[in-house]
Structures are given as C-alpha cells and as structure tokens.
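Progress against Task 2.4 (sequence-to-structure conversion) is shown through the following example record, which the project officer requested during the mid-term review.
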Amino acid sequence: IDTGPVIIVPGLRLSGYFTDPSVYIGMPDVKIAFPIDRFEPFVIGGVGVGHVSSPSKTGAALFGGGGFLIHFRPIAFGAEVSYTAITGTGFKGIGIGPILAIGF
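Structure tokens generated for the chain above:
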C-alpha cells in the first residue's frame, strides 16, 4: 500500500525451528518502508501464536525488526535484523541475515 512517503506491506510469517525443543510460530506482520530514491530503510513487526514442544507451552509470539534494501531494478539487496520471543516460555531468538529481492 503506497501512501506516498511510506509503503505499508501486510504479510504472514510462518516459522518452524526444528531443534530440541521444536518451536512453531504463526503471525500476521506488517512492514513499513521509507523509500529514499534507491535506498529503502524499513521496520517490521507482528504478534501471533507460538508453541514450544517440550515442555509443551503455547503463548503469544512477538516479532520486531528492521533493515534496509538498495534497489537496482529488477533486483534489490539488503539486510535485516529481527527479534522473536514467545511469552510464557524461554524461547527468544535473534535473526541477522541478507536479503535478495527479485521483482517482476
């Protein structure tokens, strides 16, 4: 959704961590981007449901992060940092990674 100075991108985040214990997360999320020519910083966040298998607990999954993209039509490169936690459990995770986006 292009509002002019910002772009709002609704999404759905589904995650599975197949470790011991296993963790499953599902949530709607929203990304808010602030394009400045080719450079696009953004923030992203969401709230949903998370489940940890052992001991079996379900709680609210919280997600937040940010990053940037640099556009070179039709591709873009960037990086993102994020934090995920499930309330009532000991699960907390930090994600750091590159982004490669291809537009059609």
